[in-house]
Design a protein that fits this description.
Layout lengths: L2 E3 L5 E3 L3 E2 L6 H14 L3 E3 L7 H13 L9 E6 L7 H15 L6 E4 L6 H13 L6 E4 L3 H10 L6 E5 L7 H10 L2 E5 L13 H10 L3 H11 L3 E2 L6 H8 L8 H8 L15 H7 L3
Parallel strand pairs: 3-4, 4-5, 5-6, 6-7, 7-8, 8-9, 9-10
Antiparallel strand pairs: 1-2
Helix pairs in contact: 1-2, 1-9, 3-4, 5-6, 7-8
Amino acid sequence: MEYLNLNTGAQIPMVGFGVFRVPDLQECENVVYEAIRIGYRLVDTATAYKNEEAVGAAVRRAIADGICTREELFVTSKLWVTDMSDEETAARAIDASLDRLDIGYLDLYLEHQALNDYFAAWRSMQRAYKAGKLRAIGVSNFYPNILTNFCEVVDVVPAVNQVELHPYYTQEGALETMAHYGVVPEAWAPLGGGRYNPFEDEGFRAIAEVHGKTVGQVLLRWNVQRGVVVIPKSTHVERIAENFDIWDFELTDAEMAAISSHNMGYTGTRAKHFEPDFVRMCLGK
C-alpha cells in the first residue's frame, strides 16, 4: 500500500473501499469485513448511504478478530446537504454519524456537496475537528472555482476533495487547483460509475494484457499514478481483492496518455451539479 500525506500530518491510504449503494446492512457489514481482511485500511461511507451502522459493525468485528487495530484504519463519512442548513443542525448530524458508527472518532469527515449553507456547516466541522471527534475534515464535489473561494475564506483548509475522477472525466484542472491548496484528491466512481463499458474497450484491454492485469486494475492504477486516492466499490470478494492488487506494475507515460484520451469533459459526469433540477433534488425541494 502507498499513502499520501494530509495537511493534518496524517496519512491516507491510496486505495480504499467504498460502500455507495450497499443499503442492506448485513451485506454491507460482510463486504467491509472482507475488505479489511483482504488488506484495505480505508473505508468510505456517508450519511446518505444509510449504512454507517454496518461499517461500524464491520470495523469493530475486524478489530475484535485481531485483523487490525482501530489506529490502522482510516474511516470516512460525509455530512449530507439537508444537515447543512446551519451550525447547530450540522453539529447534531456529526454526532449522529459518530453514534451510528460507534468507533470512537472519524479519520475523515466530508461535506458531501457544495450546497445549502456549507460555510456554516464547515464551522461546525472545524469545531469537531479541533475537539478531536474528526481527525481530518474535507469536502466532496467542490469544483475548482468553489474550492478556490472556500480555501481562501475558511480557517481550516480541507484535507481532501472527493470528486468524480475516471478516464471519461479526468478533471486535470481540478487536480491542479487541489495541488495549489495542498488538498488531496480522492476519486469516487474511479471505474466510471457503471455508465460506460471500459472493460470491453480494446485499448484498455491491450494495456491490461501487457501488464498481466485486468482493465479495472489498470484504470485504478492510472488514477493512483496521478496522485489520486481511489475508493472502488464491489460486493464480490474476488473483485474486492482484485481492486486492491495494483502495486506490482506501473503504467508508462504513453499508456497514461492513451487512457486520459478518453476524457469527455463535463458530458462524462454522472452527477450533474450544474443542473438546477439536480441541485433541487439534493436539497429535497
